[in-house]
């Protein structure tokens, strides 16, 4: 919402338009970010493994939260990178720190997701052995 349209009345068409913008953002991330392809591959693997191992509803919830945490942090990191590139196309030590910290958020969420996946999948796999 811009500062000029604060008194705008609620419009379903506008909300639908907002969702379209958001979908375009996800599509843009999938097109431009190679890391997103890795997340997509990992997401497919985790969902398939969860289905094959018949994890329960609570385990599904944790897996979905872990997957979402990675995607949300990647999306915010991508948005941050775009903004940094506009604000400072040339090298700047603070941009370096900012981008590295944003990338660190993705790394931390991915590490958490791997730990959650191990906690959930290892007992299921052990039962099969
Ligand atoms: N304008 C800049 N000033 C300083 N350092 C930068 C700048 N742009 C990028 N960097 C450094 O280069 C690293 C990689 O930046 P980049 O924007 O390519 O992100 P990436 O996630 O590693 O790459 P990609 O998103 O293409 O996979 C950043 O983490 C940062 O350390």
Automatic annotation (TrEMBL):
The active site is at residue 74. This is Diacylglycerol kinase. It comes from Tolumonas auensis (strain DSM 9187 / NBRC 110442 / TA 4). Its main location: membrane. GO terms for biological process: phospholipid biosynthetic process. Its cofactor is Mg(2+). One of its GO terms (cellular component) is plasma membrane. The keyword Disulfide bond does not apply. It is found in: Cell membrane.
